[in-house]
Amino acid sequence: MAASLPQRFKVDFDPNSQIFSLAGTIRPRSIDEIAESIHALREAIDTVRGVLYIDVKRLIQMNNTAFQAFIRVALDACRERSDLRLIVVTSSVVSWTTRMFRHLSTIEPQISVEVYDSMFYPGQDYFEDTSFIPILRAQTKLTWRHERTILPRHGMRPGIAVADICCGIGDFAVLAQKEFQPSRIVALDHSKPSLAYARKVAAEFGVTGIEYTYGDASEMLLEDNQFDFVSCRHSLQVFNQPELLLKELYRIVKPGGRVYITNEKNSHCLGEPRAQSIQWTYNELARLLSNFEIDVEFGPKSRRYLADTGFDDILVESFMVTNLDGDPQDFADIIAGWEKMFADMAVRHGETPEFIERFRQGFRDHIFAALHPKGYAGWPIWAASGRKPL
Amino acid sequence: MGASVNKTTETAFEPLLQFDMEMEDFLSDWHHCDHVSSYLARMISHNRTDPVRHSNFFSSALNELLEVSFRGGTTDGKIGLSIYRQGATERVQLSFPCPPGQARFYREAVSKTRESDAQARYLDAISNDLAPSRESVLLDLAVNYDARLRLDEDAAPAITLIVDLPLEGMVS
């Protein structure tokens, strides 16, 4: 049945940041089975001065036997040391942890409990703003024209188990389900408004069977080796630690399965006429976003990142979304959305009014090129995938 | 209390699945609690609003119930687990044979989960006890999972714990 579910958990103490972390599934029959971990917590408490963070964000399961054993150590330590403060950090993703650990602050004033549920990455408030939803829809509409033919080369096929991580408003999952009829499809994102929108759209269109789930892509509840195909589109580039995400994608894909990623290289966006203005703005865009730890030049780096994560049989290709992919107005609408969002970020970063005006002009010129009867406007994307070794 | 089942409410719950196992086999490996709870939670959660998180939450509660039966059950007979659904609530019906005289213990423990001082009892237990008792585990379900528990003793010496878990609303 579920013989592949091992008793698995990890305990770690970082003395520099004074963080003791518990991760995985901890369901012992007796305290003896976790004696070493209990001892590690005692040692961590003895080591620290002031505050010890107890990080349970990645704690997937813990039974009462383990819970009570760990909190016993924490409560005893607080009673012995008035200088000690313990901060338990739970995740908004794992419902039971917050409900169980919240009592500690009631029992012991030296313990506080914090729920980690925002700012999973530096540019999150921009990309998860609901005003960005129409842009995301338009982007997927245009990229799908290319990806539907690209995907089979990267392992997508009917009847397989698929996960779309950082699914946003879930439109890619809907399109993938319609086109490829996977046996199972999970779509995970950290934006509750985006997921609410995704569920609403799916319900309105009578699409069933997509398992939309709220989660942090760098610390997912999904079990190991579950999926034949895992996609993560336009997301590694906006996370400040893409290697953490890739490690998680690697973990959940089955041996022999593939992880498919798409990313941009925004400095290669182009247009004619007004090429120079367009080029300047997109070069500046890459520079601006690097200040927010966002790497919109990630695309060609995909091969290296996949290899460093441990994937083999790596495939990389690129495609250009252009104003000739259907209605040019769709392309123009995307650029208009970018202009607003990225100009807001430039303001936030403290750029001068002169810079912002010139910066905006490049986007407007890109729109001009897209809508020009003889114009050409492009947005290049790198699609890459790697196989998890058998 | 346990024997007086409200038939109107009972029929409103839709059966989702039933699981039976020889108690001797179940008690042969502690990890059965983890495996069964994880597997069944995923099965019944697939059509919840957030299947992954519902499954995680439900597995957590179900595992505690299975651990109660593991620690308190005897080898003669079967463990029976039925799961039902009504709206946002899953009902877990867990039957297992237990030693004579234990029914009274469970009757009192279940009764305490429905008293007004359930939370205070729970906090007292986790503040002071070295290891969880079966009573504090049932209090945990009431306090942390908003579970409503009752006991059915119709099939003595087996007992049946009936636990309503309104987790869908808490997850979503």
Key terms for this structure?
heterodimer; A: about 400 residues; alpha/beta; eight-stranded mixed sheet; B: about 170 residues; alpha+beta; five-stranded antiparallel sheet; about 25% strand; disordered N terminus
Verbal overview:
Chain A is of the alpha/beta class and 390 residues long. Chain A has 13 helices and 14 strands. In chain A, helix 1 (35-47) packs parallel to helix 2 (64-80), helix 10 (275-290) packs across helix 13 and helix 12 runs antiparallel to helix 13. Chain A is globular. Residues 1-7 of chain A have low confidence and may be disordered. Chain B has a five-stranded antiparallel beta sheet. In chain B, helix 6 (118-128) packs across helix 7 (134-144). Chain B starts with 6 loop residues before the first helix and ends with a helix. Chain B has eight helices and five strands. The chains are: A alpha/beta (390), B alpha+beta (172). At the A-B interface, helix 2, helix 3, helix 4 and strand 9 of A face helix 3, helix 4, helix 6, helix 7 and helix 8 of B. Chain B: One of its GO terms (molecular function) is methyltransferase activity.
Topology of this protein?
The complex is a heterodimer of chains A (390) and B (172).
Chain A: E1 9-14, E2 19-26, H1 35-47, E3 51-55, E4 59-62, H2 64-80, E5 85-91, H3 95-101, H4 103-107, E6 111-116, H5 124-127, H6 133-150, E7 161-165, H7 171-180, E8 184-189, H8 192-204, E9 210-214, E10 227-233, H9 242-252, E11 253-264, E12 270-272, H10 275-290, H11 302-309, E13 312-322, H12 328-349, H13 353-371, E14 376-387
Parallel strand pairs in A: 2-3, 2-4, 3-5, 5-6, 7-8, 7-10, 8-9, 10-11
Antiparallel strand pairs in A: 1-2, 11-14, 12-14, 13-14
Helix pairs in contact in A: 1-2, 6-7, 6-12, 9-11, 10-13, 12-13
Chain B: H1 7-12, E1 14-22, H2 23-26, H3 31-45, H4 51-72, E2 78-86, E3 89-97, H5 102-113, H6 118-128, H7 134-144, E4 148-152, E5 158-165, H8 167-171
Antiparallel strand pairs in B: 1-2, 2-3, 3-5, 4-5
Helix pairs in contact in B: 3-4, 4-7, 5-7, 6-7
